[in-house]
């Protein structure tokens, strides 16, 4: 008998039996759980829908379509919220039968307050008659800083509860996630079968994060350090890989995927293994594009916070090379570099101090102006006088500052990487819109070319650059992109 049991064939058989039994068991349990929640949502479907619609004056003849915007931080007033409200306004304009349901965690405020703030912050007018707010109580589950360990996973699991709370209030016809909670897509799909749309600003996990841990692990291995930190890093790597797999799996439950830039598109397509459409968010370039494109002064501006990654040192070095190679630029043809930025904390102050020192050492301090904490009108003043806008950050994901230069009629000289390379300083109407560089020599050379452009040449590039950004990153083009994507599931 014992012989029979220990027989490898019998053992394998038992093992396979055990695995398939537990697999079947898990499947059945999952199935039962899903069926339970599904039927519980179905039981209240019409009641909750009617109750939601009763909170507004829906006056169209057609059957309303409920478009649910999942945006727990809708009152934050940042770039993501500009995207949200612009999208809602455009949907209201073009689809009068669509009622926007906004799932938000701002449980303390009222609809009127939120809409007033949207008007004040973004100058966007929302028709109160076709929006309904659903106030969620469980937003604390996705709060930053709530979890000290396994933050990604914990927040993602938290979003499942938040997503279910949203569906409990009302099941929309289309679920539109505008904050990147990808874990909610399979939940929504499995429980309701409705269409899921996503606008992704930023991947929850990026290959940059993975690569960082990977590099650290292999460095430790090379040094033959096999202590706690190596094990910790290897564990982290496995965790990230696993998370990326699940994240990719979740992403596949979305029917429509929009991303905000080429950088995000690359990451999302890689992780989710599917296509995503770029819909650039609208940039507020209006105030800058009112500045006249006329004869400008020999001024190079740099608008950037004094953060290390902005690489102001590269700006000073390039400018020093420009002045040293062209001594006339110091006095007769005096050329200035104006560094505009805010000092928000002690770190910034220190960096500014060391930049001032560096300017002295490079002997360019007479031609460099530090404009710290400038007001917006002061900024506009510089942008209206200067001829060139300088940007030196490596691999910036987008680079709104460069867009603003171009809108303001400046010739951009930007870092040849990231957003400036892929999205912004690209040819428009087959004509250049500025210059790209990635080292001191190239930066200095391009600065010289840009500063010395004749009025006619300057005008050509500046006009083209302005047209390019005002077209590509306008609200109109954004609205077009969003509506084109959503139309597939709204009609
Ligand atoms: C709906 O319309 C009525 C009458 O026009 C008005 O009194 C009421 O305030 C409106 N309700 C909403 C939610 O706008
Ligand atoms: C809600 O409002 C109260 C009083 O107005 C305030 O003290 C509290 O901080 C608010 N809570 C949140 C989460 O904003
Ligand atoms: C996309 O979103 C990310 C995260 O909010 C932001 O850093 C980036 O600048 C955005 N891209 C564009 C084109 O606005
Ligand atoms: C800039 O503003 C910050 C606070 O907003 C302040 O602490 C700092 O002293 C200011 N710096 C200058 C140079 O005005």
Automatic annotation (TrEMBL):
The chain crosses the membrane at residues 12-37. It holds the Pfam family ALG11_N. It is a single-pass membrane protein. Residues 66-272 form the ALG11 mannosyltransferase N-terminal domain. It is found in: Endoplasmic reticulum membrane. Keywords: Endoplasmic reticulum, Glycosyltransferase, Membrane, Transferase, Transmembrane, Transmembrane helix. It comes from the Eukaryota. Its EC number is 2.4.1.131. It catalyses: an alpha-D-Man-(1->3)-[alpha-D-Man-(1->6)]-beta-D-Man-(1->4)-beta-D-GlcNAc-(1->4)-alpha-D-GlcNAc-diphospho-di-trans,poly-cis-dolichol + 2 GDP-alpha-D-mannose = an alpha-D-Man-(1->2)-alpha-D-Man-(1->2)-alpha-D-Man-(1->3)-[alpha-D-Man-(1->6)]-beta-D-Man-(1->4)-beta-D-GlcNAc-(1->4)-alpha-D-GlcNAc-diphospho-di-trans,poly-cis-dolichol + 2 GDP + 2 H(+). The keyword Chaperone does not apply. One of its GO terms (molecular function) is GDP-Man:Man(3)GlcNAc(2)-PP-Dol alpha-1,2-mannosyltransferase activity. Belongs to the glycosyltransferase group 1 family. Glycosyltransferase 4 subfamily. This is GDP-Man:Man(3)GlcNAc(2)-PP-Dol alpha-1,2-mannosyltransferase.
């Amino acid at each position: 008998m014992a012989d029979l049991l220990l027989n490898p064939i019998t053992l394998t058989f038992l093992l396979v039996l055990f695995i398939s039994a537990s697999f079947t068991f898990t499947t059945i349990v999952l199935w039962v759980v899903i069926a339970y929640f599904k039927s519980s949502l179905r039981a209240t479907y019409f009641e909750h829908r009617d109750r939601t619609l009763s909170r507004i004056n829906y006056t169209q003849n057609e059957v309303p379509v409920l478009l649910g915007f999942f945006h727990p931080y809708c009152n934050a007033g940042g770039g993501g919220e500009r995207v949200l409200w612009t999208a809602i306004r455009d949907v209201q304009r073009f689809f009068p039968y669509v009622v926007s349901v906004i799932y938000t965690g701002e449980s303390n405020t009222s609809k009127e307050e939120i809409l007033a703030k949207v008007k004040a912050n973004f100058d966007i007018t929302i028709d109160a008659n076709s929006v309904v707010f659903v106030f969620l109580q469980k937003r604390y589950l996705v709060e930053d800083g709530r979890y000290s360990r396994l933050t990604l996973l914990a927040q993602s699991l938290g979003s499942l509860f938040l997503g279910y709370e949203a569906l409990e209030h009302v099941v929309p016809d289309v679920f539109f996630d505008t904050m990147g909670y990808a874990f909610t897509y399979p939940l929504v799909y499995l429980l309701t079968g409705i269409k899921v749309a996503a606008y992704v600003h930023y991947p929850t996990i990026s290959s940059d994060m993975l690569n960082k841990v990977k590099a650290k692990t292999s460095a430790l291995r090379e040094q033959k350090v096999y202590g706690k930190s190596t094990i910790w890093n290897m564990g982290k790597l496995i965790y990230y890989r696993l998370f990326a797999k699940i994240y990719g799996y979740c992403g596949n439950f979305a029917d429509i995927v929009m991303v905000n830039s080429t950088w995000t598109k690359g990451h999302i397509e890689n992780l989710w293994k599917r296509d995503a459409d770029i819909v650039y968010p609208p940039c507020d370039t209006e105030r800058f594009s009112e500045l006249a494109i006329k004869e400008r002064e020999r001024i190079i501006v740099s608008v950037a916070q004094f953060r290390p990654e902005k690489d102001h040192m590269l700006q000073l070095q390039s400018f020093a090379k420009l002045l040293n190679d062209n001594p006339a630029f110091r006095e007769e043809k005096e050329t200035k570099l104006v560094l505009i930025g805010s000092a928000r904390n002690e770190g910034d102050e220190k960096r500014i101090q060391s930049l001032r020192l560096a300017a002295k050492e490079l002997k360019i301090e007479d031609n460099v102006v530090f404009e710290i904490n400038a007001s917006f009108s002061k900024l506009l003043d510089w942008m209206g006088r200067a001829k060139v806008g300088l940007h030196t950050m490596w691999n910036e994901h987008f680079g709104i500052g460069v867009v603003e230069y171009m809108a303001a009629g400046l010739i951009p000289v930007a870092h040849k990487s990231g957003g400036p390379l892929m999205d912004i300083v690209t040819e428009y109407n087959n004509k250049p819109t500025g210059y790209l560089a990635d080292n001191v020599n190239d930066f200095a050379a391009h600065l010289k070319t840009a500063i010395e452009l004749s009025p006619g040449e300057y005008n050509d590039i500046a006009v083209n650059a302005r047209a390019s950004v005002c077209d590509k990153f306008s609200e109109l083009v954004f609205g077009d992109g969003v509506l084109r994507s959503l139309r597939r599931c709204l009609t």
